[in-house]
């Protein structure tokens, strides 16, 4: 039981013994008002040594009851004082105010990402979101994992917004701003927990993009039926990476450089075309000169299906909703997204 739970229990015990004492004084005494009964209960439990305002010398039952209140009340009072002292000494009041401030910042977020679970997988996902300056919130049951991430990643307490709680709990997701979120990364260790969280997230926010971690292949299809846009298997990714290291080491080395180089944030990203760019050709957009971005492919709808067109020609005319896959620095990417007037990310 943590300190905050002990504090809540102490408050319940204190209110309980006060209620029992007041009720007993009224029931066993003669013509005892509620105010006098409450006053008698307070001075008895606190042990301040004032005289009895409700006489007990001619009422054996009331005197026995008062002895009970003294013994139990003083014990509970000592416990309450010890918990309150620990609460003050351990700085939980400061943490309480900090968490309220952090929750206020979370409530102000829009189009952010939620990372559920800060294990090894969640750690790398969160680090990438921070490096690309993507607003995000962590949902984690154990605060020590948050602290460990801060230390490993060198992040300050201001940078990591989080909600302590179970991601399978609807209230916890509400605190993380699920209805305002742009996407969610479900990266808990258990596939069943990931499945439950995916179902609730899809019900809460039908338009968000959900990517779920899946260890057991049989859960992948279930998660997609439950609402996940994509599932990722760490074992499958690991196997593909091993094969790529053997077959195309220079390509892997270049892609690794993009992720490991701290001086720049070179990424392969996507830009959803909006009204500002709709109707222009790739030559007119001139992404290389204006934004220092290299266009790798275009994803557009043809015959009712989404199709990729690698190395798009200059004469290709983009439409509203077309997605352009580009490579470049994150800062240049943000400028291009802002100018395109499109959605920040397509939930496909």
Enumerate the strands of the largest sheet in spatial order, edge to edge or round the barrel. 3-2-1-4-5-6
Would you report the number of β strands? 10
Largest sheet: 6 strands, parallel
CATH homology group of the largest domain: NAD(P)-binding Rossmann-like Domain
At CATH level 3, the topology of the largest domain is Rossmann fold
Mean pLDDT: 87
Distance between the ends: 43 Å
**Shape assignment:** elongated
- As for the number of domains, it is 3
Briefly note the structural class of the backbone. alpha/beta
Can you tell me the CATH architecture of the largest domain? Answer: 3-Layer(aba) Sandwich
What is the overall number of helices? 14
Q: Percent of residues in beta strands?
A: 15-25%
Reading the helices and strands in chain order gives HHHHEHEHEHEHEHEHHEHHEEEH
Tell me roughly what share of residues is in helical segments. 40-55%
Describe this structure in words.
53% of the residues lie in helices and 15% in strands. By secondary structure, the protein is α/β, with parallel strands linked by helices. It has three domains: 3-89, Helix Hairpins (Orthogonal Bundle), CATH 1.10.287; 109-232, Rossmann fold (3-Layer(aba) Sandwich), CATH 3.40.50; 265-348, Alpha-Beta Plaits, CATH 3.30.70. The strands form two sheets. The protein has a six-stranded parallel beta sheet with strand order 3-2-1-4-5-6, with helices on both faces. Helix 5 (120-131) links the parallel strand 1 and strand 2 (136-140). Helix 2 (34-46) crosses helix 3 (60-89). The longest helix has 30 residues, at 60-89. The chain is elongated. The two termini are 43 Å apart. The model has no long low-confidence stretch (mean pLDDT 87).
